Every structure is written in C-alpha cells, then in structure tokens.
Amino acid sequence: MANEHNEQAQDIQNEQQPEQTQAEGVEQATNELSVEDLQAQITTLAEGLKLEKARAANATYEAEKVKERLEREAETAKKFALEKFAKDLLDSVDNLERAIQAAGDEQSPLLEGVQLTLKSLLTTLEKFDVVAVDTTNGFNADHHQAVGIDPNAKAGEIGTVLQKGYTLSGRLLRPAMVMVGQ
C-alpha cells in the first residue's frame, strides 16, 4: 500500500511538472507583456507628473505675485488714505496763517496761541508725511500753479506765493499758487 501511495504521488508530481512548466511559460509571456505595458504606464504617469508639477509651480508663482500685488496696493491705499482729510485740514492751516498775517507785528497772547496752534497742526501733518511744497528753487510746473506774472521777479523765478502747496508722501496734494517772473 505504501508503494501504491508513492507511485500515485509520483504520477501526480509528474503530471504537475509539465503543467507547471506550461504555466511558467504562460506566466513569463504574461509578465513580458505586463512589463511592457507597465513601462508604458510608467512613462505616461511620469509625463503626467511632470505636467502636474509644472502646473503646481505655476500656481505657486501666480499666488506669490498676487500676494505681492495685494500687499503693494494695501500699502499704497494706507499711505494715501488720509488724502481727503489732509486736504481739508489745509484750509485750517491757511486760515491760521492769514490770522497771523492780519495781526501784523503786534504780539499778544491770542496771536501766540494761534501761532502755537499752527505749529502743532503743521507738526502733526508732517508726522503723516504732509509737507509744504518748496518755492525757493524756482518754478516747477509739477508742483506750482502760475496764476499771474510778478514784474519784480526774474524769469522762471517765483515772485509771490499766494497759497502754499503741499504733498502727501511725495504725491501732490495741492499745488502752490504763485506769481512768476517773466
């Protein structure tokens, strides 16, 4: 009985060996096709990955540019947010200067108070980068508005300043109204 059992096991083994050899051949052929297919898939996926990396890099670049632009715009808006307010305060500065001129040479506590108020207001305006336009270096059409001719001034020079001009952070807020020599 043991012999019969061994013979049957050998027969089964012999039958399985050709089947295994056949299966290995089919598996190798399948593996060869699969390897080619897998390599094609790898190539396709690698190209897709490159494309997606490029898109991600482009999106990151665009996001940075938008962020920088928004920061610049916010800074500009913050810088010039006081424009209307400062323009309205300039009327008060003009009125205080006129009051000081009207007082003439007479010194009084009232005049001293007006002068201190004007000084305080100008200091506050300068703190927020509101600065008077320079009228000592000749006429500049970008900062001065000629409203007449001053016969006592040299050509191209400013003779009389009728109203001071001001800038806010380098941007013209109000031009100086001047009379210019011919």
TrEMBL record:
<comment type="subunit">
    <text>Homodimer.</text>
</comment>
<keyword id="KW-0175">Coiled coil</keyword>
<dbReference type="InterPro" id="IPR000740">
    <property type="entry name" value="GrpE"/>
</dbReference>
<dbReference type="GO" id="GO:0006457">
    <property type="term" value="P:protein folding"/>
</dbReference>
<feature type="compositionally biased region" description="Polar residues">
    <location>
        <begin position="9"/>
        <end position="33"/>
    </location>
</feature>
<comment type="similarity">
    <text>Belongs to the GrpE family.</text>
</comment>
<dbReference type="GO" id="GO:0000774">
    <property type="term" value="F:adenyl-nucleotide exchange factor activity"/>
</dbReference>
<comment type="function">
    <text>Participates actively in the response to hyperosmotic and heat shock by preventing the aggregation of stress-denatured proteins, in association with DnaK and GrpE. It is the nucleotide exchange factor for DnaK and may function as a thermosensor. Unfolded proteins bind initially to DnaJ; upon interaction with the DnaJ-bound protein, DnaK hydrolyzes its bound ATP, resulting in the formation of a stable complex. GrpE releases ADP from DnaK; ATP binding to DnaK triggers the release of the substrate protein, thus completing the reaction cycle.</text>
</comment>
<dbReference type="InterPro" id="IPR009012">
    <property type="entry name" value="GrpE_head"/>
</dbReference>
<protein>
    <recommendedName>
        <fullName>Protein GrpE</fullName>
    </recommendedName>
</protein>
<keyword id="KW-0346">Stress response</keyword>
<dbReference type="GO" id="GO:0051082">
    <property type="term" value="F:unfolded protein binding"/>
</dbReference>
<feature type="region of interest" description="Disordered">
    <location>
        <begin position="1"/>
        <end position="34"/>
    </location>
</feature>
<keyword id="KW-0143">Chaperone</keyword>
<dbReference type="InterPro" id="IPR013805">
    <property type="entry name" value="GrpE_CC"/>
</dbReference>
<dbReference type="GO" id="GO:0042803">
    <property type="term" value="F:protein homodimerization activity"/>
</dbReference>
<dbReference type="GO" id="GO:0051087">
    <property type="term" value="F:protein-folding chaperone binding"/>
</dbReference>
<dbReference type="GO" id="GO:0005829">
    <property type="term" value="C:cytosol"/>
</dbReference>
<feature type="coiled-coil region">
    <location>
        <begin position="51"/>
        <end position="106"/>
    </location>
</feature>
<keyword id="KW-0963">Cytoplasm</keyword>
<dbReference type="Pfam" id="PF01025">
    <property type="entry name" value="GrpE"/>
</dbReference>
